[in-house]
Design a protein that fits this description.
two-stranded antiparallel sheet; 3 domains; mainly alpha; about 0% strand
Length: about 575
């Protein structure tokens, strides 16, 4: 039997297109990234990386920031038996481990330019003492790099699914600039790394499926990388375990169907390459088992229980997954401050894209998308913190976004003129939504919105906070939900008004009636030095606070953008397609 064997999907021109997307987005992300941690969780994650590099242990300590976190007791967890005096981050060690190369690169820059480290260590007017400036900066650059690499993989994955090169390029660029992937990539949280690793696992799954299409067994290294990416995603953020489980089950299913196809194709004969299914299963399973062992060991070492991730008190709370799922789902889809309809408007073409992707390869993608949606939406919709504040957009859905965005590309490529015009309009709208989230720090908006919310929704008369502060926390949580649903408070609409106020030169005191549409003549001001003006941007902070030069980052971004445009012109040249 000599069945038709498909050619390889990815060629040199496709890789050039992927590199062009990577460079263009990396230029944009580098120009707008935060650099220094933009919330307490991000600082805790950095301090874990710092402790691993300096002491070989994830126990926080040894820097002014770490000691302040230990004293405050916020976002850190005491160790288990024998380590009660130590404090650990309740986050995945995968995030900290991947940050180590960036940390050491930052230490090298600190040796080259020690004057900036000295200026950074001087106490600020707010009394904040900082350390390890370049290490913070380089570790903060990890998310822009991984965000751009996610779009790089999106090009190659789209090509393996049967999408044309131009459509794949458009899909990746619009994903990077017209969805909340841009504000997330310029931040410093772990969602970006988890999303990259999950998409990387799917990319290796597509490679395995392509080998089966060519009646060959997948390479052991590809299967090992697939398992390692899934395990690494869970080590980065244990909350993505449901999505990782779906992808792992899909890998087993693809392998089973692929082996059957090869057996049918060479029935009565022998395949050109000897089949070793057990060895390939070991290659897939071994990294997954190894990562699971590391996770359980790290939990036991830090917290005294292999199943305790540091958030045991949260998950043991009976109210943790008791939020009405229909309200959580509605918020994730249409809430003015978090809904996917606003934060990734191109997903409105999801249905059209899925219909036009019929017959794409591998066959598993449309059904996989359904299961990934259930694994992504359902756990988040059940939690009171479905909105993921203070980050911009529904951050907990970021790992699902690149998988779903592939449908946008199919809609653009295989739809009619009307569908393409709709795609252009939704892309422009998406750009307008993401822009204020890059020019106005989400943490600044969160701070100002919280102050205005206390004016708009004050505590009930006579209400007294409980001794442990629980009543106050409940009131703040209720206001947080109001902020997500109120058009006057929600991002990015309020961020546009903050930006307009600043560009008009009206200072850093904001009238609540103008910014948040609250019936009051009070004016509010964001706390913290980084909330003033555009200091949340790494390069503005370097110039204004530390007196650093502006030309090196400008030159870097220009070179990245220029190279990306040149690569795009060559890759998308019709004479080379």
């Amino acid at each position: 039997m000599s069945p038709y064997v498909r050619p390889y999907s990815v060629r040199n021109g496709d890789r050039l297109a992927a590199w062009s997307v990577l460079l263009v987005l990396l230029a944009v992300y580098t120009a707008t990234f935060a650099g220094l941690p933009d919330n307490p969780d991000a600082e805790v994650e950095f301090q874990t990386t710092s402790a691993l590099a300096r002491k070989g242990t994830p126990a926080l300590g040894g820097t002014p920031e770490a000691e302040a976190l230990r004293e405050a007791g916020r976002d850190v967890v005491p160790g288990g038996p024998g380590r009660e005096q130590q404090r650990f981050a309740p986050f995945g060690l995968g995030q900290a481990a991947v940050g180590l190369p960036f940390y050491f690169a930052g230490r090298a820059l600190a040796l080259a330019w020690p004057e900036f480290e000295r200026r950074n260590a001087e106490p600020t007017p707010d009394g904040v003492v900082r350390s390890e400036y370049f290490a913070h900066l380089l570790v903060g650059w990890r998310d822009p790099l991984l965000g751009a690499l996610t779009a790089f993989l999106l090009v190659l994955t789209a090509r393996r699914l049967g999408m044309g090169r131009r459509a794949a390029w458009i899909t990746a660029v619009t994903y990077g600039l017209a969805t909340f992937a841009w504000p997330q990539a310029r931040s410093t949280l772990s969602d970006v790394q988890a999303a990259f690793l999950l998409l990387a696992a799917f990319h290796f799954l597509c490679i395995a499926g392509e080998h089966f299409d060519r009646l060959r067994s997948p390479r052991l290294l590809d299967l090992a990388w697939l398992g390692a990416c899934l395990g690494g995603a869970v080590l980065t953020r244990v909350a993505v375990l449901p999505q990782a489980a779906v992808l792992f089950a899909a890998a087993l299913l693809v392998a089973r169907r692929g082996r059957r196809r090869i057996a049918r194709a060479f029935e009565g004969g022998s395949p050109p390459v000897r089949e070793r299914p057990l060895l390939r299963l070991v290659a897939l399973w071994l990294p997954v088992v190894a990562c699971a062992a590391v996770l359980l060991w790290a939990n036991a070492w830090r917290f005294g229980d292999p199943l305790n991730t540091g958030r045991g008190r949260t998950f043991s709370d009976p109210t943790c997954f008791s939020y009405p799922p229909h309200l959580g789902l509605l918020g994730l889809l249409v809430a003015p401050g978090k809904g996917l309809v606003w934060m990734a408007p191109g997903l409105l073409l999801l249905g059209w894209g899925l219909r036009r992707a019929d017959g794409s390869k591998p066959w598993i993608w449309p059904s996989l998308l359904v299961w990934l949606a259930l694994a992504s939406f359902l756990p988040v919709a059940l939690t009171p913190d479905w909105h993921g504040a203070p980050a911009f957009g529904p951050r907990y859905l970021l790992p699902f976004l690149p998988f779903a965005w592939l449908a946008f590309g199919f809609a653009v490529e295989r739809g009619g003129r009307g569908l393409r015009l709709a795609a252009v309009a939704l892309t422009l709208f998406g750009l307008l939504v993401q822009l204020p989230a890059s020019l106005v720090d989400p943490a600044t908006h969160q701070d100002l919105a919280a102050q205005a919310a206390r004016i708009q929704w004050p505590a009930p008369p006579g209400a007294e906070p409980a001794p442990d502060g629980s009543a106050g926390r409940e009131q703040e949580a209720l206001r947080q939900h109001h902020v997500q649903w109120d058009w006057g408070f929600a991002a990015p609409w309020a961020q546009w008004r903050i930006l307009r106020h600043r560009l008009a030169g009206l200072g850093e005191e904001f009238p609540v009636d103008e910014i948040f549409q609250v019936d009051s003549d009070r004016r509010i001001r964001a706390a913290g030095e980084r909330s003033r003006g555009f200091r949340h941007l790494a390069w503005v902070d370097l110039a204004e606070r530390l007196g650093g030069p502006g030309w090196p980052p400008a030159l870097l971004c220009t070179l990245l953008m220029g190279a990306g445009i040149v690569f795009a012109v060559r890759a998308l040249d019709r004479t080379r397609l």
